[in-house]
Every structure is written in structure tokens, then in C-alpha cells.
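User: Run a structure prediction on this.
Assistant: Running it now.
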Amino acid sequence: MSALVSILVPAFNAAPWIAETLASALGQTHPRCEIIVVDDGSRDETLARARGVADAHPDRVRVVTQTNAGASAARNHALRLARGEFIQYLDADDLLSPRKIELQLARLASAPADALATCRWGRFETSPAETRFVDEEVFRDFAPADWLLLHVEECRMMHPAAWLCPRTVIDAAGPWDESLSLNDDGEYFARAVLVSSGMAFTADADAATYYRSGLGGSLSRRRSAAALASLYRSIEKISALLSAREDSPRTRAALATYWQRLAYELYPDDPAGSRRAAGRARELGGSDLAPPMGARLRLIARVFGWRAAYRLARVLSS
């Protein structure tokens, strides 16, 4: 009998997209998939629409609810209910290609035990037909430390839905950190990668995921004090994980760049956090990463410094 795959869908105010997302889960060519939707206290029609899909497919879709506690808590709730030998995370506005799980399972059959499967992923705003598959640097196999080095030094990412994870690896990694709201997926998959035997990329173009981007209320676009504090803590945890795995000149250089990038990211919303991040970069030997800005702001930064240039940019944009 083929393996059971649990597709876990945290959902919050996702009424415009939840039916399309669940259709992509139901459309998997792999014959044994259970779909678990955890509605995280939505205030729109998400729950009703998810239940409508479940009513039409009672043997395949289960919908549960919880008081609003965040995406990580919803994923943990779904994980506790999951019976699958493999775990597929799927946010409520993203999509899977029909053969995604089938082809990744085939790839894992020839990979070392406890490998994580990955695949192509791209961004779209309205139609998946317009998806841009742009980050080809991550479309290959990786040893665990090599993946994290690329992630921290060059800010490369893997779309959360692009992973297919053996349950043994997920259990060893531990639950999602429910105290994190921003970059919770980066921290979680850093742990998962480091307890795995590595990443096995599925090269077949029919294995793909579609990341809906550009949504005005997207969590990744928040700049609140709590969100930025979560970002800092996630970087701190990922840095500790990589340092514990390999303390070497290459990891220290990569982590210095990681912290320097965070110093730029936090300013001017969190000046204190930005200064702490810059200090961490210096402790690791410093980084020559330039602040991201246009030509006009670079001229200002040469005279007054990058912080003054960033403050001016904020004034001009407000």
C-alpha cells in the first residue's frame, strides 16, 4: 500500500482562496492523501467554505477550528491530528501542482533515509499561469549545513509548501515555535533540515508549488514591534543552530552577513534591534554587505551614513 500523506492547511481569513487551495490538494495524483484544515478563528467565510469542501469529500477532508492563536499554533494543531507517514504543509492561499506529492515520493524512494524532498516553486499574484520561477539557486540537492549557509548568507528561501517531509524528521525537529509570528517557517525548517539527512530536489517540472504573493495583509509585510521582535528571535535561533552544527570561518562569515542584513531590515522601525544586529555582525568578524538602496540614497549615505538615508527614504515614502 502506498504511503499516507497528511496535507496540513492553517487558515485565517482566507475565504477568497481556500476553495482553490483545497482543490489543488484534492487534485493530487498520489492516491492516499488526508487533508486537515485548521481554521484559526477566521472572521470571514473561510470556515464555511472549508466545511463546504469537506462535506463534498468527507473521506478526504477534515476541518477543525481553534480560537485565534496564529499560524504556527494552527500547524501544530493539525500535526497532532495527522496520521500520515509524510507531512505536506500548505498555506490557505497557496497551491500545489497535481503531481507534486507523487513525484516527490518517487524522489525520496531513491534518496537516503530521512531526506526532505523539495521542488520548484514560484510566485504569483492573481493566476498561477503567471507564476515566476526565479530562484533556481535552490533547485538542487543540499547537505544540511550547505543549505543553511546559502539561506543565511544570500537570503535564499524555500517556499514552505515546496517541502515534503517524512514524519520521522518532523517528529525529531519538534513543534512549530508558537511565540514566533514572522519567519516562523524559516526557523522551523532550519531545525527540520538539520535533523534530516539532507534535501533531495525533485527535478521534474511537474512537481511545483505556487506562492501567492503581494497580498496587502500578508504576515510577511507587517512591521509591528511584535513582528520585528519575532524576526530578530528567529534569526538568533537559526544562527545558534548553524553555529552548533559547524563553527568555521565560512559559517562565521555567512552569519556576519546574516546579522548585517537584519540590521538594515530593522531600521528605522527598530533602531535598538538594528544596533544589536550590527553588533552581532561585528562580533563575527564583520560583513561587507552594502545597505540595499537606490543610487540617489547611496549618494546621501556616503555623506550622512546609511541610517540617515533610510530615515529620509521613510519620510519621502510617507
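The chain has twelve helices and ten strands.
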